[in-house]
Amino acid sequence: MPAPTHVASYIAVGTGDGGASDAGINSNTPTHTMSVTTAIGDRLVAWASMADNACTVATPTGGTGITWSVAAILNGTASFAGAYLWTATATTAETFTLSASKSGGSGTFMWAFGCERFSGASGFGGVASTSNASGAPTVNITTAKANSAIVVVDSDWNAGATTGFAWRTGAGAATSILTDQDTSTSSTLTCYVAYHADSGVAGTYAVGLTAPTGQKYSIAAVEVLPAVPTYLTDYDSGVTSTTTPHTASVTTAVGDVLVCTAGTGRNTGTLGTPTGGTSLTWTNKLAITATANQCALYIWTATATTAETFTCSIARSGTTESFAFNVCRFSNVVALGNTVSAQPGVNGAPSLSITTINTNSAIVVVNADFNAVDGTTRTWRAGAGTLTELFYTFQSGQLTLYCGVHQNAGAAGAQTVGLTAPTGQMYTIGAIEVAGLLVAQPIPRRPTQIVRQAVNRASTY
Q1: Are 198 and 150 in a shared domain?
Q2: pTM of the entire structure?
Q3: Which of 78, 141, 356, 382 has an alpha carbon 20 to 30 Å from 221's alpha carbon atom?
């Protein structure tokens, strides 16, 4: 599966601190602030490096509806530097001020503060931290999923020179975000921050630096999980009937992706676009309506922008044949892949080939049978992995409608979906891929940014 995408680094810049680079460490500043930009669903990792355990850093604040959780805090040992990691998920597309404050100890204690922004991520996994009085910093982190990103912060109380620094590469190549040494006062500190963009297969990895050695270090790391679509639940309109409209009560969280499938007993009636929900925009992905004496079939998708429960409604125009619909709800969806369909015009067992463009995608399948064969004894094809049935309804002489989801279709490539039984169906079948992140057609983005901003005093450079 694709790794999360590192979108930007934001660093509260220390100005005039007398250090080697003035890149990030700032003394005598009780509060660090920076401007952070997010899109809905972005995963954020905030970090801090503190010169001494006598001074602590509070949990960051800022952002609409953002709740920061502690991933790791190392500040309990005397004569050691502190290392901090917090995580959060953006619920709003916005630019806001992120701030953190220190307290306790001497006002001259050096510290640095920053934030990493990721898209295409589903959450956070493994966490590891440790302190050691001497050596090259290292900590073992066990990742929960393949292709995760890892953020690492290292604080050296000895404030050694950064010359010749080298990140460990067992978890893949490391991109250095900040390397800064400050020896301008008695409270000295060297800070290193980096991320591994793709740690490969799930397992245990040593992260940190191989040089410089001789550090008295505190090091912490957190895993950022790749986006894998998660089927949450589904909602249906109940037994097919000739009444119109049909309705279903649907619950969403911000960022959920909804896949609505529907079928009719004949092609002589037309189903309208679903309605309901706050600012929901439904996009039609499939509409098969042209063939006489066969079923009509539809697929729509929408992304929720509001956490709510609403009534989803679909109306039929034209003749009075039976119809029904289902709404399938997913989280951790970054993109939608291929949509395919088949209406062969012959009796048989429903079969459809869909080529997924991403590993570990979900596939939603809908099948409508014009012959209305009784499907009480039915078998779903399993070439795309185990299928979870969402909806089945049978009305003799009218319509048999099936809907299901393959929650994990495995490797990208051609997959056959449908049913092997019952046979004798005059079927219309459709399927859509629900992907964590498109591989063949990547989402355009700007190159990784590093945004550094002065804090509370004028720059001297």
Answers
A1: yes
A2: 0.67
A3: 78
